[in-house]
Amino acid sequence: MKKQTEPSPETWQGRYNAFKKLLPTVSTAHSPSDIFRDVCRIFSLSLRGTVTIDKAERDEIESMYASLAGRYGPDGMKKVGAMFAHLVEALELKRSDFLGHVYEDLNATVKSFGQFFTPDSVSALMAKMTFAERPEPGRIVKMNDCACGAGALLIEGAEAFVEAGGRQGDMLILAEDLDATACCIAYTQLSLLGYPAIVRHMDSLRVEVYEGPWFTPGYFFHGMPMRRLFRSGTGGEQPKGESKEDQEVVDVRQLVQTEFDFGGEGK
What we know:
The chain is an alpha/beta fold.
């Protein structure tokens, strides 16, 4: 019988295997499922901290991060950093739902929620059917998934949008889920893939917000606050007849709350 060879570390599968191999070594005091949930929270906090300017929110992020880092110590956090590197490199090799696959493989999904993540092939098919035609240039296309899970359908949708000729910065992604870990995964992956996105940990049926909104770095890098304020959809031109001094300061949170009516104040 021919011996099966391990995938090359330089492939997506190789990075995936390396990530999973590191996971249980982060700590012997916690189960792999618990470690994974904490690791996903650490990833999301690290990325959120790069675009948060409100001092109270920054202090809260730093406090949560310090609490999680203290749970695993310097050696454990060094391994978490290595896992993050595997994630980044895997997404560069294939833009996909990397962490969602880990979540399912660990059997760590929340059974009481009836979670079943959409298979990649189904997500890709739905995405290609939705964006079968070339998008209108400059128009902001909004895509919402109120039970986003790890974000597989949103990622496939965003990729199909670009393949159809759309601009990465012209798609605004809205992601919501009842599972906090799923929200952390979706936020992390959408951030690393560069998409403008807003993520909320919430019950979409009851319209109860537990955490959020969380804005990805891409939301700001693509100038989404100003573009949505001006409603021009072409890069945020200054409205006619108004000087820069006459324009009001953009309250991003209020803008999101008003336009998409997520409900609740969130945190």
